[in-house]
Amino acid sequence: MENCIFCKIANGEIPSATLYEDGDFRVILDLGPASKGHALILPKAHAANIYELPDELAGKAMVLAKKMAGKITEALKCDGFNIVQNNGQTAGQTVFHFHMHLIPRYEGDSVGLTWTPGELTDEVREEILSKVSQ
Ligand code: AMP
Ligand code: ZN
Questions:
Q1: Which of 24, 41, 49, 133 has the most neighbouring CB atoms within 10 Å?
Q2: What is the pLDDT of residue 20?
Q3: Which residues does ligand 1 sit against, CB inside 6 Å?
């Protein structure tokens, strides 16, 4: 897609710090890392978000995330690992080309990925079950 920065990075038109590349994906270091080793999985084919991502690439992306998590954890000796994927501005997406964040976590770091737990009421549970479950 024209004028998509992640299309250009994924396809090598713009140089990046590349940790891994295959026919479908490039894994790069995030330019504004949340922690040491924060990386992004970028599919080479444009999909704006998870809704547009073909099933085959979705499956491969998760397998690659697992592989990279192991590799990064071993290399950087992090203490934990978050995999984050934002869809839509409301959810924090700023680049509208699907990507998965690989975020190594270190004891005492200040990466903020937590929320205050709410309450699942009977009414809301039943509403969601009636609308979403099969
Ligand atoms: P999101 O907010 O989920 O859309 O994440 C976008 C991520 O892309 C942020 O973590 C940015 O730091 C990162 N980012 C934006 N532009 C670049 C770039 N040119 N190279 C590497 N990472 C980038
Ligand atoms: Zn793109």
A1: 41
A2: 98
A3: 5, 16, 28, 30-32, 86, 92-95
